[in-house]
Amino acid sequence: MKYWPVLLLSLLPLWAQALEVGERLAPWTLLDQFDQAFTLDNQTQTLLVARSMDAAKLVGAALQDQPKGYLEARHAVFVADIQRMPRLIAKMFAVPAMRDYPYRVMLDRDGRVAPRYPGSVDKVLWLQLKDGQLVGKHEYATAAQLREALEKALP
Q: How far is CA 3 from the centre of its chain?
């Protein structure tokens, strides 16, 4: 019985991290696959977050056959959480392969950004922003759903 207060107190930080509609997102800066810096600002309207390789593959499939600059035209930014990927694998294989993508991938190598936005590991988290504030959030489990949502987000 005396373990309950300890358990509840240990879970309190997890509840505090929940991102709520109306909250302003704290700015951050990450490097993309070309080592070019990007800073989250008020111009970003959509933030896509993938916490796993499977989720990142959903984004890739949704963007298949789209022209270069497709995400940028929609003021969308894609963040891939690669903190669990071994650094040597990332450096020698994964990141060089990402340079062939027709879209930018902001690489969260140290887990500084993606954990701020809680969601399922196997889904793509879509955060809809307006002037830096969260106005909506969704999760997509299929490339078709994500592609449809991106099409609706006209430039």
A: 36
Q: Are 47 and 40 in contact (CB under 8 A)?
A: yes
What is the number of other CB atoms lying within 10 angstroms of the CB of residue 47? 22
Q: What is the CATH number of domain 26-152?
A: 3.40.30.10
Beta strands in the chain (DSSP E): 29-32, 37-39, 46-50, 76-81, 106-108, 124-130, 133-140
Residue 139 and residue 126 in contact, taking contact as beta carbons nearer than 8 Å: yes
* Element of type H or E holding 32: strand 29-32
143, 62 in Cβ contact below 8 A? yes
Residue-wise pLDDT tens digits, 34-80: 999 999 999 999 999 999 999 999 999 999 999 999 999 999 999 99
What residue segments make up the domains of the chain, in order of their start?
A: 26-152
> What tokens appear for 139 in the block?
């999760």
Burial of 53 (0-12, 13-18, 19+ CB in 10 A): middle
Give tens-digit pLDDT for 87-115: 999 999 999 999 999 999 999 999 999 99
Alpha-carbon Rg of the chain, whole angstroms? Answer: 16
